Structure formats: structure tokens, C-alpha cells
Amino acid sequence: MIALTTPSHIAILGAGLMGRLLALELAREGHRVEVFEAKSADADGAAARVAAAMLAPLAESAITEPGVVRMGQYGLTRWPELIAQLDEHVFFQQNGTLVVWHRQDMADANRLCSLFEKNRRINPSLPALQSLGAEGLNNVEPALQGRFQQGVYLPGEGQLDNRQLLAALEKTLTRLGVQLHWHTPRETTDFTPAPQAARLGDRLPRPGRTHRMASAARHSRRSGARACP
Ligand SMILES: Cc1cc2nc3c(=O)[nH]c(=O)nc-3n(C[C@H](O)[C@H](O)[C@H](O)COP(=O)(O)OP(=O)(O)OC[C@H]3O[C@@H](n4cnc5c(N)ncnc54)[C@H](O)[C@@H]3O)c2cc1C
User: Fold this and answer.
1) In degrees to the nearest 10, what's the CA dihedral of 118, 130, 220, 123?
2) In 10 A of CB 220, how many CB atoms?
3) pLDDT (tens digit, 9 = 90+) per residue, 95-135?
4) Sign of CA dihedral 7, 10, 1, 75
């Protein structure tokens, strides 16, 4: 990450999750920011519209590397702060992730839980998972209505409303004076680096550079504890 020490004119390509978050941060730092988005303000071209709702580092640890898990843990602490600064309410909860399975999937569930346990040994700051029977599951999530006999609860994980988030970011960016260009696809070659950026060569990001971020996530609540099944 490069610190921009003087106010700059910055173009961001893409108003998905990263484009909007980046624009927010840069606008707050006093930069003049323009965002060019190929699709509409509804984020109909963005993964962030259909995803980015589950904030579940322990659950994700089964399928990703430790560094991404640690970023997910950090992200969980950052989301409430970030949402509190937006101009509209965004649903956020941190009631944990519930993983359930049918009896015939027990072998897969055991493998998954072993992975969770192994990852927790590597990263002890991850929460301990709790094994639940039918009664525990009903306490944690009454909507399941006895349909599952077993599950594990991963405490502390979160969920947010990604579409509310995108709308709240749009509103806040507009207030901060960020210029949002919808239905305006662009390529990095459409932009010329400012003289200052050109002099400093590759120490400064080129205008129009796209940014990406991996995130994590899943649903749920809480109850009594045990170990893996
Ligand atoms: C199925 C699925 C489930 C996921 N689940 C989760 C989850 O539960 N929790 C979680 O945290 N993350 C989840 N993710 C990941 C999350 O969605 C992404 O990490 C995040 O959306 C990436 O942000 P982004 O801004 O890089 O990309 P996007 O959100 O996809 O935004 C990219 C934007 O760039 C625009 N664009 C593309 N090309 C151009 C161009 N040339 N000019 C202008 N605009 C352009 C697109 O139209 C789009 O709006 C999931 C992803 C997928 C696919």
C-alpha cells in the first residue's frame, strides 16, 4: 500500500465492493475521486451484489490460507466501525455461523470439523467451535424446526446486508463529493498519469488502477458448547 502524501486526482475503475470502499477512504483523506462503473448504481455487474454478506473467518479457514483468515478476523472488527460512518443504516450482526448436515453427510462433516480444529491450532485466536445436537440446534436457530440432528456452531462470526451496504456507500460517496459515473466502462489505458505521478514513476499508483480485496463470510446464532462430533 502506498501513502499518497499530497491531494491527488484519482480514478477508480469499478464501483463494486472494493471500488466503493477505496473511494470512501480516499475521499476522506481529501483526494479528488472519480469512480467509473461499467454497469448501474445497483451494482448489477458486481460480485458484491450477490455475495460479500458472510463474515466468517473460521468457516472460510476450511477453504483458504491462514493469511486470508487473519484478514477476515481483522475485517470483522473493522465492519462495525465502517458501517457506523455511513449515511444509511446497514444490517450487521455477529451471532456466529451455524453449519448443519444430514446424517448421510456425516463423513464430510467430520472432515470439515477436523479442518476447523487444525486451523484453530495454527491460529488459536479463532473461536472454538461447538458441537450441537437436535436440541442445541433448535435453541440456536428455531427456524430449522428439528430438521437437522447435528451441527456445529462457530461463535463470533458475522453477516451484513451487502445490498444495503452498497446503497449506503453510494449515498455517502455522493455526499463526500465523489463523482460516480455509471454505465461508463473504462480501461487503465484511458487515463494519463499526472506529471507528479509520472515523475515518481511506479512509486505512485497509476490513475484508473483497479483494486481487489478478498473477504470472507456465512449465517447464524449461539448455544451450549462441546467439541467436534
Ligand atoms: C458466489 C460468491 C460468494 C461470495 N461470498 C462472499 C461472502 O459471503 N462474504 C464475503 O466477504 N465475500 C464473498 N465473496 C467475495 C466478494 O463478493 C468479493 O471479494 C468482492 O465483491 C470483490 O470486490 P471487487 O470490488 O473486487 O469486485 P466486484 O464487487 O465484483 O466489483 C467489480 C466492479 O467492477 C465493474 N467493472 C468491471 N470491469 C470494469 C471496467 N472495465 N470499467 C468499469 N467498471 C468495471 C463491475 O461491473 C463491478 O461492478 C463472494 C464472491 C462470490 C463470487
Assistant:
1) -30
2) 23
3) 999 999 999 999 999 999 999 999 999 999 999 999 999 99
4) positive
If DSSP codes are grouped into helix, strand and coil, which group holds residue 77?
helix
Question: 0.70 exceeded by the pTM?
Answer: yes
63 lines ligand 1 (CB under 6 A): no
CA of 36 to the centre of ligand 1 (A): 15
CB of residue 212 inside a 6 A radius of ligand 1: yes
Strand partners, 93: 159
Residue type, 100: V
Cβ-contact 156, 76 below 8 angstroms: yes
What is 9-203's CATH number?
3.50.50
- Residue 60: pLDDT over 80: yes
CA distances from 109 to 105, 116, 149 (A): 6, 11, 13
Any ligand 1 atom below 6 A from CB of 32:
no
Residue 224 near residue 129, CB atoms below 8 Å: no
Span from the CA of 198 to the centroid of ligand 1 (angstroms): 30
Which residue's entry shows cell 447464524? Answer: 220
